[in-house]
Amino acid sequence: MAAEGRSGRYVRQPPGYRAFIPSPLPPNPQLTIDAELQNLLSRADRALGRLDGSIQTLPNPDLFVMMYVRKEAVLSSQIEGTQASINDLLKAEADIYDQQMPKDVDEVVNYLSAMNHGIARLDELPLSVRLIKEIHEKLLHGVRGHKLQPGELRQSQNWIGPGGSNLNSASFIPPPHEVAAEALSDLEKFLHAEDHIPPLIKIGLSHAQFETIHPFLDGNGRVGRLLIAFFLFERRLLMRPVLYLSHYFKQNRQEYYDRLQKTRIEGDWEGWIKFFLKGVGDVAEQATETAREIVSLREGHRSIISDQFGNSAGKANKVLEHLYRRPTVSINNVRDVLGISFPNASALIDKFVEAGMLVEITGQARNRRYFYAPYINLFSNL
């Protein structure tokens, strides 16, 4: 049941513009769960369950999480206009200098840092305004937006719109800062309220509400997307944080913005939740397929090693396992992992290259680095 004013109302401010004042969640009248919405919820729940189960079959689930988190860092940052790819991120982490590397790779590195910080902090701190502020500080530290109060709720009016827009021409004007702080506190209470709202519906409502509140001067989209993964992890709907919707939101960018705006103007929470649940189902199924592909890839490469590497197969399998932890490697890395000489490590790397498992990425004669390309491509072919 969509109804104008259901999500809040526009209120004219003293300077003359109209800002949106959100109503606390849950929506009133309450969400109408029709057959379509129920089917989407059931499908999303089943897809999450299958994803959680498939992750447990991996040789080391945490290694999948590491790469999947990197994929999300890249995609979520790209929505905000960055150009860096997952390969750029891996090079930056391995301290590989590349003059072609986009300068905004630091923003992706920060996103990764913010994500890992949030996941670690959930062991000791609930999903809260305090944690949201910590994540925001990590996100903007030392990069574009670092002068826009990292880690602090905004103290001035912001707005959403195309480049060059102002308060008079903006597409959407969030609540004034003092109202935003109160609304964010209400959102925290809603997240932890004891009620009968299905968790996936609760986080869908909460993500939209966060984007409406827009509590920071910059970084709201990225923080809002992180909240989804953190909530599912905190509630143990997933034993590991491996559901990220940035790919879905990026593919359906205009519908994403339109659905959010319809919650504000028309009170159409049902349309938004259906869109959100479809995304959860789609992304969970894709992640499950990626997990299956990793298992298949690993077994295929172990077979190649067994068939082609002769007496060095045992050492090669140790290198293979290392590549799932860190898919960027050098001859020195292999030497240290195996405790062998540099020439022997170099010869072993050559075997991996000949087998198509490693690709040299520096183009240099010395200090060469290699990507475990078949594995990286499972995450970067989007």
From TrEMBL:
Domain (Fido): residue spans on this chain: 127-278
Taxonomy, superkingdom: Bacteria
Signal sequence extent: none
UniProt protein name: Fic family protein
